C-alpha cells in the first residue's frame, strides 16, 4: 500500500513542478531566471543561484543512492554539495537545469516503485528513516527556493 508515500511524492513533485502553496515552484523559478545572474556572488550570500540548484541535484542523488541501498554514499566535499565552478557557470546553466530535471524524474520514478514500508526503514548508513529524509527534501527545497528568490531580486 502507498497512501503516505503517494502524499510525499505529491509534495516533492508539487514543490518541484508547480502549484505549491508557498509560491513559485523550483521549475517556475528555473524558467524565469536569466543565465547572466545565476553565477553571480552577492555580498550577503556565500552561494550563487547555480550552486543552490546544484545542491538540490546533490540531495536528489543522495536520496537515489540511499534508495538503491548504497550505505557508503556520502556528500563529504564542497564539490559534492555545491558543484564546481565549471558545472555552476552561466555557460553551463542549460545543462544544470536539465540535470536537475532529469535527477528529479529519476528520484520520483524510484519512489514510485516502492510502498509505505519504505518510510519506516532506516536510510542506509544514516541515523534517520526515509520518512525524515523525504519530508526533509521537501523542506530543503522550499528553504533554498527562498534563498534563490532573495538572490534573484
Describe the overall structure:
Helix content is 58%, strand content 0%. By secondary structure, the protein is an all-alpha fold. The protein contains 6 helices and no strands. Helix 3 runs antiparallel to helix 6 (130-152). The chain has a single domain (3-152), classed as dinb family like domain (Four Helix Bundle (Hemerythrin (Met), subunit A)). Residues 27-148 form the DinB-like domain. It comes from Jiulongibacter sediminis. This is DinB-like domain-containing protein.
List the helices and strands and how they pair.
Elements: H1 3-17, H2 26-32, H3 49-67, H4 78-82, H5 93-112, H6 130-152
Helix pairs in contact: 1-5, 1-6, 3-5, 3-6
Protein name: DinB-like domain-containing protein
Domain DinB-like: 27-148
InterPro entries: DinB-like, DinB/YfiT-like
Give a brief rundown of this model.
With 153 residues, the chain is mainly alpha-helical.
Primary descriptors:
globular, 6 helices, single chain, DinB-like, mainly alpha, DinB/YfiT-like, 153 residues, Four Helix Bundle (Hemerythrin (Met), subunit A)
Tell me the CATH architecture. Up-down Bundle
Q: Oligomerization state of this entry? A: single chain
How much β-strand is present in the residues? under 5%
Low-confidence stretches: none
CATH class category name? Mainly Alpha
* Mean of all residue-level pLDDT scores: 93
Helices, by number, come to: 6
Number of DSSP strands?
0
Inertia-based shape: globular
Helix content: 55-70%
> Largest sheet, if any?
none
Terminal CA distance:
44 Å
Summarize the helix and strand pattern as letters. HHHHHH
Rg over CA atoms, rounded to whole Å, is: 15 Å
Class by alpha and beta content: mainly alpha
CATH superfamily: dinb family like domain
The domain count comes to: 1
Here the CATH topology equals: Four Helix Bundle (Hemerythrin (Met), subunit A)
Amino acid at each position: 500500500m502507498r497512501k503516505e508515500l503517494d502524499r510525499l511524492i505529491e509534495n516533492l513533485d508539487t514543490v518541484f513542478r508547480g502549484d505549491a502553496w508557498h509560491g513559485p515552484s523550483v521549475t517556475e523559478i528555473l524558467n524565469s531566471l536569466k543565465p547572466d545572474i545565476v553565477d553571480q556572488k552577492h555580498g550577503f550570500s556565500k552561494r550563487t543561484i547555480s550552486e543552490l540548484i546544484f545542491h538540490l541535484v546533490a540531495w536528489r542523488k543522495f536520496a537515489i543512492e540511499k534508495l538503491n541501498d548504497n550505505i557508503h554514499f556520502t556528500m563529504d566535499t564542497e564539490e559534492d554539495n555545491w558543484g564546481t565552478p565549471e558545472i555552476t557557470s552561466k555557460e553551463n546553466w542549460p545543462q544544470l537545469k536539465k540535470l536537475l530535471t532529469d535527477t528529479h524524474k529519476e528520484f520520483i520514478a524510484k519512489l514510485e516503485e516502492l510502498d509505505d514500508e519504505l518510510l519506516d526503514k532506516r536510510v542506509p548508513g544514516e541515523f534517520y528513516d526515509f520518512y525524515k529524509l523525504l519530508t526533509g527534501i521537501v523542506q530543503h527545497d522550499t528553504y533554498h527556493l527562498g534563498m534563490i528568490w532573495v538572490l534573484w531580486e
